[in-house]
Structures are given as C-alpha cells and as structure tokens.
TrEMBL record:
UniProt GO molecular function: ATP binding; ATP hydrolysis activity
Organism in which the protein naturally occurs: Nakamurella endophytica
A Pfam family reported for this protein in Swiss-Prot or TrEMBL: ABC_tran
Alphabetical keyword list: ATP-binding, Nucleotide-binding
PROSITE patterns for the chain: ABC_TRANSPORTER_1 (PS00211), ABC_TRANSPORTER_2 (PS50893)
Gene3D superfamilies: P-loop containing nucleotide triphosphate hydrolases
Name this protein carries in UniProt: Sugar ABC transporter ATP-binding protein
Amino acid sequence: MSAAKVEVRDVRKTFGSVEALRGASLSIAQGEITAIVGDNGAGKSTLVKCITGLIPPDTGDILVDGSPVHFSSPKDARDHGIETVYQDLALCDQLSVWQNLYLDRELTRGFGPVQFLRRRQMRSEAHRLVSDLAVNVPHVGRPVRRLSGGQRQAVAIARGVMWARGMIVLDEPTAALGLRETAQVEGLIRRVVDAGQTVLVVSHNFEQVKRLSSQVWVMRAGAVVTGVRTADVTGEELVGLVTGAITAV
Ligand SMILES: Nc1ncnc2c1ncn2[C@@H]1O[C@H](COP(=O)(O)OP(=O)(O)OP(=O)(O)O)[C@@H](O)[C@H]1O
C-alpha cells in the first residue's frame, strides 16, 4: 500500500489526566511538504506518534489514501508506506552507511533456514540511492560513528526514502545542526519531494517552515487551530498563531 495522502479526523489522546490531543484534525497533501508547528506541549509529538503507529489514538480516525487505518505499531504504519525519522535517528553507530540503510530489512538469498546476505547488492543499491539523492557522505562503507551530525541525519532520511512508499515523517530534522548542515539537510528534504514522496515535518524553526513547506498546520493546547498555505503567512504571523496572539491571518 502507498501513503500518498493522509487525513487525521478528530483524534483524541489522553495520558492519565492530561489531554494531549483534544480533537485534532488535519490533512497532508500528496507530493508536498506539510509542516506542523506549535509551542512546547501543544501535542505535535503525540499527533505524529498516532500517525506513525507508535501510540494508538483513544478516538478519531486516521485515513490513508481515503481508507481508515488502525495502526498498532510503527510496522503497521510502514506497511502502509509511512516511514518515520525520529529525533534520535535510530542509527547503529558501529555499522556502515549501507548496513544502516538496510538495518532489520537486509536482503537475503537462500532457502528455508539457510540464508545469505546479499552484501554486494545492498552496497551497490545503497551507493546508487546516496548518489541519486546527493547525500553528502564520503562513501557507503564508512561507519556511521565517523559521520557528522548532518551526515547522520542525511543517512536517516535516505533510509526513510529507501523504504517509504508514499510518506516520510521528519521530527525536528535539523534541531541539532548548524547553519551549513541545516541547509544541506533542507536541500535533501526538497529532493525527497522531487523524488515523489510526501513529507510531514515537525519543526520549531519558523524560518525553516517558511523555506520548506507548502502547507502549515498550527497546534495549540492539543488541537489543530488553523491551517494555512505557507506562502500566505509571514514568520511573524506564524509566531502569533502559535502563541495565540492572533487567531487567523
Ligand atoms: N507519555 C506521556 N505521558 C504523560 N503525558 C504525556 C505523554 N506524552 C505527552 N504527554 C503530555 O501531553 C502533552 C502534549 O505533549 P507533546 O509531546 O505531544 O507536545 P509537543 O507539542 O510535541 O511538545 P514539544 O515541542 O515540547 O515536544 C504535554 O502536556 C505532555 O506533557
């Protein structure tokens, strides 16, 4: 299945007495970069976790390409074409770039219990992907621990591109990066969309949201309070929408 288009309708989630989501709704358009912004505690991570199968909503619907889905694990979301790049990146430091790209999804050949890794094929396909996306890594055989923060983020995104069949979710993709590496990762995110994927990005960086996204949803106190085309809003207005100083543009 592919996840070209995702819709969230009236999703609620409570943790004990905390209402993390109190009826959140939004839509994610195919082939675009959609951003979610909001202050600390607004519910962004919780909403993203519901979309990516990490936690189930209490009530409400998530629709993938128009059909309701019920994810009980990230694997369910992946089976629907949704790949997630979490802030911790989930890379294995001692393994190489290509081994990380195939982590837990290694290509094998053989019969029954006797399986061999297709190392050469994985390495060459990893090399092709990294070249096609112009990922800035020295070579795919290099251990990930020897890469910079930006290069590690790029490897994690490339892994998402490799396995996604429709949508990639990026949680604060450049939070830990300097200016130059941020620019490189933003370039990569644009190429992900050029390669036909849909991107959902959570970011605290309003300038980045302005540079990257076509649509932005604003969350406040567990609800999605407004959605605008990014071109129609200034950075200042975005800040106002997030804080509640303004309610519409
Ligand atoms: N596992 C949990 N147990 C209890 N409360 C939680 C849990 N996860 C989130 N919350 C609460 O739900 C609310 C929304 O949190 P969430 O992490 O979704 O916000 P956020 O917008 O992603 O914030 P931030 O930008 O700080 O990451 C907060 O009040 C938070 O404390």
